[in-house]
Amino acid sequence: MKILLITEQREGKWNKVSFETLAAAQQIAQQAKGTLSGAVVGKGLAALADELSGYQLDEVLLVEHDLLEQYTPDGFSLALRQLIEGAKPDLVLLPHTYQVRDFAPKLAASLQKGMIGDCIACRYENGKLIFVRQMFQGRTAADVVFTGEPAWVASFQAGAFRADLAVKHASGKAPVKPVSVDLKPEQIRTKPLELFREAKQAVDLTQAPILVSVGRGIKAPENIQMAEKLAKLMGGEISASRPICDEGWLPMERQIGSSGQTVSPKLYLALGISGAIQHVVGMKGSRTIAAINKDPNAPIFEVADYGIVGDLFEIVPALIEELEKNKPD
């Protein structure tokens, strides 16, 4: 099986979900005894291609063109169609980011192929790839397989795999091969504007190594300040379950869950969050989950690595006090 991983960068910086998908692609390649190529798309990305070549890949394909410097769905789908038709992979894998959601269905349609999006797992059984997707807001999961001839296109949900499990070459690097694509200005029907920012303080929580997340147990908006102080001392960001954002206590870009962001930080600290499935699907890929809740039967404890049954208004001030004591001068 020949596998092609399409990575994502913006303004010369990786989207870390690319490396989560790389870990997935490496696992599939190992199970299926296949080859794995990685693609970097844009302009002036030789340094990123060189960095990617340090990972366990058979080759890195560098797709550069003036019209790919800024993302457009037309430019990317046209360029990647040419790449896929030339490389002839059996499977094309992408991270399920906002950008991929924008162009991947168009790309698959242009190839006259189907697409399985937002997968959380994949396994290789009896010579067949079986993808797993969540359904009904994460209440259940379904096995999905491709029919028809390859190339098949699939994307993996953020947090489904751990980026730190992506394997690097023991020695040396994979070869980097430039790939030429033919694009014309008249084929690009959209004009990129400046990158969207919902608010001046907006943050991409998927990039945060530590998240302190608050739920109904925080009781009142004025109490969020305490959680924000804890997050700052821990070098993390504040986030929340949906009810907190619905009430307007925190902006919507801070929401974690099926209708918010999906995250996979090194540490996820849940304060007063019961653990409804809609929230859990957005954070269960975290490397370590710690929860504080007064209810010993709260569902959050089913996914937590560490749990404290107690009053967060007693525990959090104690944590803040200890962190302040040990704070570097």
Outline the structure in words.
The strands form three sheets. A nine-stranded mixed beta sheet has the order 9-8-7-10-6-1-4-5-11, with helices on both faces. The chain has two domains: 2-187, Rossmann fold (3-Layer(aba) Sandwich); 205-325, Rossmann fold (3-Layer(aba) Sandwich), CATH 3.40.50.1220. The chain is elongated. Helices cover 26% and strands 26% of the residues. The model has no long low-confidence stretch (mean pLDDT 92). It has 329 residues and is of the alpha/beta class. It has helices spanning 17-32, 46-52, 73-87, 98-110, 224-233, 242-246, 277-280, 312-325, and strands at residues 2-6, 9-10, 13-14, 35-42, 59-64, 91-95, 115-125, 128-135, 140-144, 152-156, 176-179, 210-214, 237-240, 267-271, 288-293, 306-309. Strand 12, helix 5 and strand 13 (237-240) form a beta-alpha-beta unit.
Look at the structure and give the mean pLDDT. 92
Largest sheet: 9 strands, mixed
C-alpha end-to-end distance: 55 Å
CATH-defined superfamily of the largest domain: HUPs
Q: Domains counted in the coordinates: how many?
A: 2
Q: Please give the count of helices.
A: 8
Number of strands: 16
Helix content: 25-40%
- Tell me the β content: 25-35%
CATH class of the largest domain: Alpha Beta
**Spatial ordering of strands, largest sheet:** 9-8-7-10-6-1-4-5-11
CATH architecture of the largest domain: 3-Layer(aba) Sandwich
Radius of gyration: 21 Å
Task: Sum up the overall morphology in one term.
Answer: elongated
